[in-house]
Amino acid sequence: MLTDSIKFESVLPAGPRHVHLLGICGVGMAGVAGLFLDRGVTVTGSDQTVYPPMSEHLIRLGVRVQEGYSPSNLSPIPDLVIIGNVIKQGNPEAMAAINLKVPFTSMPGAIEKYFLQDKLCFVIIGTHGKTTVSSMISWILYDQGLDPGFIIGGLPYNFKGNSRLGGGKIFVLEGDEYDSAFFDKQPKFMHYRPSIGIVTSCEFDHADIYKDLPHIQREFEKFLRLIPVDGEIVACNDYASIREILEYNELESETYGLGEQSYWKVSKVDDTGTSIDVEFTKGLDRVASGSLPVLGRHNVLNALAAIAAVEKVGVDPQNALESLASFKGVARRQQVSYLNRGLTLVDDFAHHPSEVCETLKGVRFRFPHRRLIAVFEPRTNTSRRAIFQDKYVESFMSADLVLLRDPTDPWKAPDGDLFSSSRLADQLKSIGKEAFAFPDADSIIDFLMSCLKPADVVTVMSNGSFENLMSRLSKKIEDFEK
Question: CA 20 to 30 Å from 333, out of 327, 360, 410, 460?
């Protein structure tokens, strides 16, 4: 049993030569591994399940990754152990590190200690859009010659990985509201020393940590209080929950959004199906016009947030928009694969009802006259509860056919509080939608192979691997063609 003396971070060494990461195959942890490798540090790690593509990426980087957690993984003894938030108290490898008195910290604690000293930090928080806005800001700053460092919770296609040490004074961080580690229960973003804070959205999520929306709002308020008096706040004004947060903050903020009350606005938007023509206004002045290669209303807002933020370090809005013309997007954010017979597969990370809704709207705009099949896995602790049971009905309105997997590994929750895919399918059928629930990915693939038609668009949404449904379905279609 842990004692009070080891429930907090131990004293860290000034410069570790060997760092070991528990839970290394998570996107954020792999990004931290990359930052240390760029410093010339030896990096090793372990994870419960070692799987591609992240395992292959780490091996290419020269990281020794061990499957499973064991005290033997700590040989030779590292200078520093970073414990990811997937690691539970009592994990044998974590306990061995503590018993050996090896210095240890959480992932955001390591970032703060070793990579943010004397940096001007852009920190992006919000229920949705963090990864894309972080990627957009990083690309604009890089394209404009400011040589930023960054760590992002996704894989931006403009870079070789999701982290970069950078040679400039700026560091961009995706600020996750999830907790940091079993011994560090504050949100990750509380470690990140924001100079410029960007708030993209604020809705209820992470039901395993937060009680309700006001609970999340309080943590966002705490984050904004970290910004110094000479810092900046850029926040989406389209959310009443964000407007409430800003009322309690003493710093001036610049708002952005689609509404007329926002300081930064979208004065023109024309979705052509292959790109979005936009015009942005700051106050009463038109400041940028051009095209975005990414689609959907949510990406217009993401781009506006990025442009408003980078202006704080002297990047002209028009130049920023021109940099975004070469933005390639982020893996698993409307990631499109074109297959034989005109079939199209779209892979997306959407899991919250708002994200599912915006993703399907974006895909519908891109492929307006084709049958849209939505495939959804409720995998997060929030989506596996009944909190959004009824709200998900609205999320699938853009789809023609909806295929739902039963919740994975239902966790303990009050009676009647578990999400039901079968019930959602019945709710959708009651309003005229074709919808079905399935026990696993195998049965979904079998159903799709029995009903797919040329030119169908299949959009798969999950924040996990979904039993490798995308790659397995692609192979099945290719084999069928042979």
Answer: 410
Separation of alpha carbons 153 and 370, rounded Å: 32
| Rounded Cα–Cα distance for residues 396 and 400 (Å) | 9
Tokens describing residue 283 = 């106050």
Burial readout 434-447 (b: 16 or more C-beta within 10 A, e: otherwise): ebbbbeebeebbeb
| 459 pLDDT more than 80 | yes
DSSP 468: G
Closest by CA position to 246, among listed 260, 266, 262, 230:
262
Residues 352-390: b if buried by 16+ CB within 10 A, e if exposed: bbbbbbbbbbbbbbbbeebbbbbbbbbbbebbbbebbbe
Dihedrals φ, ψ of 330, to 5°? -130, 140
The dihedrals phi and psi of 278, each to the nearest 5 degrees, come to -135, 160
4 pLDDT higher than 50: no
Burial class, 279, CB count within 10 angstroms (exposed 0-12 / middle 13-18 / buried 19+): middle
Q: Is the Cα torsion angle 111, 113, 114, 118 positive or negative in sign?
A: positive
Indicate the length of the chain as a whole number. 482
Q: In this predicted model, what pLDDT tens digit does every residue of 227-277 receive, in sequence order?
A: 999 999 999 998 899 999 998 888 889 999 988 889 999 988 887 666 788
What are the structural domains of the chain?
Answer: 13-107 (3.40.50.720), 116-324 (3.40.1190.10), 335-481 (3.90.190.20)
Return phi, psi of residue 32, to 5°: -65, -40
Q: Provide the H-helix boundaries in 382-433.
A: 391-395, 421-430
Residue 82, Ramachandran bin (φ over 0: left; ψ between -120 and 50: alpha; else beta) = beta
Helices 54-61, 27-38: inter-axial angle, 10-degree rounding: 10
Token pair of 367, please?
């492929």
Burial class (CB in 10 A: 0-12, 13-18, 19+), 84: buried
**For the chain, what percent of residues have pLDDT higher than 70?**
92
- Report pLDDT for 47: 93
Q: Residue 18 and residue 328: Cα distance in Å, rounded?
A: 34
Angle among Cα 456, 53, 384 to the nearest 5 degrees reads 65
Lowest mean pLDDT among 47-61, 437-451, 457-471: 47-61
∠ CA 54-56-58, nearest 5°, is: 70
DSSP assignments along 193-214, one per residue: --SEEEE-------TTT-SSHH
